[in-house]
C-alpha cells in the first residue's frame, strides 16, 4: 500500500475534521477526484472498436465503443474460454461480501444498465447515449419516452395498486397493449402469458427482467411524478412539457448525487466521503465528451454479487424466482422490498463466486475481450499507473487462484484482462479489486461529472427552478427517496447499500 | 481603440521579432486565442432553439441549434423586415473591400457551408455534424461518402478532362446516373438538361451551385487523391479503407491549417499571425464539445462579398453566369480560375452592398432572428464584453446608415442583431465589423481547435503516418495545395485571399 492510500484509508478522526471545514472539504474532494481520473490519458481516445487505426468515422461514430488501449494481437495458445469460465463458477456456498447488500447489487445493475449498453449483435458496438440520463426510466430515445408519458402535468403514466403507485400494465391477456407497442422487452417472446400480464409498461428494455430493476424503476417513477406534482403547484403557468422536462432534469441530478455520495462512497475504502460539487471541475483536462469504453463495460460484470439464495417475503428462494415476477412488489409494497434487499449480504466480487446459471455469460465476456483484441491484464495495470505484477502471488492471496492461473497461463503477462480484473484480491474495506476500483474511479467520475446538467452554466435555479434546487440539495441517499414515496404511516424501512454489520478493518 | 488592440495592430517590427522566437510565438498565439474565446461563457450553453428553457432534450439533441443568449420577447413595433432588407441593397456600384479577393468570398462560403447548415424547413434546426469535417467534399454522412469513393487505393471517384482531374459527371442525358442516385443537389429540379449534364458527382448538396464551390471541391478532391496515392506507395500493406481514412484525416488537418494560418490571418487586423498549434489547448475551459449556434450562422451571411460583376475568362460577367456552370473550369483549368478569383476584389462586408438578387435572403435572415427571438444587437455586444453603443454615430461613420437606423429604430437598443452585425464600420485593416470579428474569433477558434484530430492524443504519426505529418507540416496556404495539383509545367499562378494592392493603414 502506498503512503497516500494508507493515509486515506486510516485516521478517521482527521478525515472527520477535514469534512467539517467546508473549503478544505471541497479542496480535498476535488484533489482526490482529479487524482483518480488522472491515472490515464483523457478522452478523446484515438481508438474505438471500429478499426485498429484512427479514422474520422472512428472519432465520431459513437455506436462503436471507445477503447483505452489499441487493439493488440492476442498471445498464442491462450487458455480456452470454457476452461476459464470454470474459474468464475461458485464452488459450494456463496462467498459473502463483508460490506455490500443485495440492494447494492440491484442498484449497480440498474444504474449501469442505463449507459453500458453493449449491442447484442456485435460486442464492439453499443446502443448507449453515453450519458447518465436514466435510460432505464426514461427510455433510450424520444419515441420511447413519449410512450410512457401521461402528457398532462409532466407525469409518467402510472396506476395505483394497494395504495401505491406503479407503472401501468404492459399487456392485456398476454398481448402488449397498442399504446405500448413501441416498448421493447428483452426475451419477451420466451415468457408465458401469466408472466406477461404482470409486466409493467416501462421504458427500459430490461426493466421487467428482475425484481431489483422493477424496484428501482418504480421508485424513480414515483419520485418523478412527485416532483412534477410539486412543480405544477409551485409554477401553475408551466405546461406539461416544461413540467416533465424540469422534473426529469431534477431526477437525473438526484440520481447523480446518490451515485457519488452513496454508491461511490460505499465502494471506496477511503475515510473521506466524496460529494457532488458541480462547480469544481470546469477547467479539468478530463472534462471531455463522454464515450463509454469496452474496458469499462467489461469491468461492470459483477455477477458474483448475486447470492445463491435471495430472501423474498421472508423465504429463501432461488434467484430466478425473482425474475419476470413483478407481483413480488405489488403484493408487499416497495418499502418492504427495499428493506429486505438491504438486510441481505451480496456475494463477494471475485473468482469462484459467480452463480452457475450465469456461466454462459462468463464465457461470452472472456470471448468478447479476445474478439476485441484487448491488451493483457498486466498491460492494463501499467496503463493506469499500477505496478505490473511479476508473480501470481501478487494478484491473489488465494492459493487456488494462484495455482489455477499458473496452470492455465504459465506467465502473468499472458493473463486476459477480464480474468485479471476478477482474480485480484479485493481492496480492504472496499468491495472491488484494485484494478476494478481504479477503472470505476476513472470512468465513473469522468463520465458522471461531465454531465451537462452539472456544468456551472446550467446547474442553477434557472434550469431546475428554486424548488428543484431545494429538492436536489436535500437528497443524497436512496433512503431519502424511498421514504418520501411510500404511503403515509409506513414504517421506517432500513435502506442501505452497506451491511448493517459492516465494520472497517 | 483599447490599448491592447492598439499594440496588436501596430509595431510591426516588434511582432516580427515575437514571431522569430519560437517559445514566445507559442505563448503569444495561445494567449491571444484564449483571450478571443474568453469574451463570453463557454459551451455547454444552457439553451438551444428547441425550448425557451433547459431540458434534457435541449442539452442533447443537436439537430436544434445552440444559442449564446436565451430567447427574449421582441420589442414592439420593430421595423418591417422588407424595409430593413433595403438597408442591405447595393445602391449603384459595388463598394469594394480594400483587402479581400473574390477567392476569399469563395473560400468562406465553401468552408462554412460544411458546418453552418441551417435546415431549410426550420431555421431553428440544422443538419450539421458540428465539426469541421469537410462535409462539402466528403458528404454529410457515411452513405453519401460511400457513393463518391472509388473503393480502391483510398481514392475518390474521378475522371480526367484536358489532362486535369475532376469528379465524374453526375448525370447522363440529363438524368442522374444510378450510382449517384443518393447524392442530393439543391434546386436540381429547376435545372435544364444541359446544366445537369455538366454537373459533377460531388458529396456536398450545394457543390455544383457556383463556380467557387466547384473550384474548391475539385482542388481538395485532387489533394485527397494525391495523398492517397503517396500513402499507397509508402504503405503498400494498407487496404483501400485505411488509405482512404488516413488521407481524409490528413486533408482535414491541412484545411484546418489553411483556415487558421491563411483565412483567419487574412480576416484579423493583428500584426501577429496566428498558427495552428495542436498541443496548446488541452486544459482550456472552452475545450468543450462543438455545437453550432444560431448567432454564428447569422454572422456568416457575407452576401456583400459578391461583386456585381465577376471576371471570368477575361470577360466581365454577371455573377449568375457562374452558377450551375462547371464548364467554366474544365475549359480553362483549375489554376487559371484560382488566379482570376485572386486578382478580383471582393465586395466590402456591410450595409448597402448586397447584390439585388439576394434581397429575399436578407429578408429571410432578418426574419430568422425575429422568429428565433434573438436578443438585440446591443445585448449581444454586452454579452461579448463590448461596450453598449449609446448613439447611432457609435455604430457607423456613414451618415446614411446613421440616419436610416435612427429613422427605422428610433433607439439603438432596439436594433436587430442581424442588422447591427452589418451596420458597424469594419475594423481598420480587417474585413469585418467589430461584432462580426468577435463572434468569428469565439466560434471559429473554439470549434476548430477542439477538432479531435488536433487533440494531443491523436495529432501524431500513429494517426497520420510519418508521411502524413510531413504533408501537414509543409502546407499552410491554398497556393501550396493548388500548385501541387495542377499539371506539371503549368505557370506559377497567383492564389491569394488578400488583394495584391492591399496596404496596411
Describe the structure.
Two copies of one chain form a homodimer. With 505 residues, the first copy, chain A, is mainly alpha-helical. Chain A is built from 21 helices and ten strands. A two-stranded antiparallel sheet of chain A has the order 1-10. Chain A has a two-stranded antiparallel sheet with strand order 2-3. Chain A is globular and about 65 Å long. At the A-B interface, helix 4 and helix 11 of A face helix 4 and helix 11 of B.
Report the strand count of chain A: 10
- Widest sheet: strand ordering of chain A: 1-10
CATH topology of chain A: Myeloperoxidase, subunit C
The main sheet of chain A comes to:
2 strands, antiparallel
Please state roughly what percent of the residues of chain A sit in beta strands, choosing from under 5%, 5-15%, 15-25%, 25-35%, 35-45% or over 45%.
5-15%
Oligomer: homodimer
Q: Low-confidence parts of chain A, pLDDT < 50 over ≥5 residues?
A: none
Structural class of chain A: mainly alpha
Through-space gap between termini of chain A: 15 Å
**Greatest interface and its participating residue counts:** A-B, 41 and 41 residues
| Name of the CATH architecture of chain A | Orthogonal Bundle
Number of domains of chain A: 1
Radius of gyration of chain A: 23 Å
Concise synopsis of the structure shown:
The structure is a homodimer of 505-residue chains. Chain A contains 21 helices and 10 strands.
Ordered list of secondary-structure elements with their pairings:
Two copies of one chain form a homodimer.
Chain A lengths: L2 H7 L2 H9 L1 H16 L18 H5 L20 H8 L7 E6 H11 L5 E2 L2 E5 L8 H4 L3 H7 L10 E3 L2 E3 L4 E2 L2 E2 L16 H6 L12 H24 L5 H28 L26 H6 L10 E3 L2 E3 L9 H6 L1 H9 L2 E3 L11 H13 L5 H7 L15 H11 L7 H7 L10 H15 L12 H13 L4 H6 L22
Antiparallel strand pairs in A: 1-10, 2-3, 4-5, 6-7, 8-9
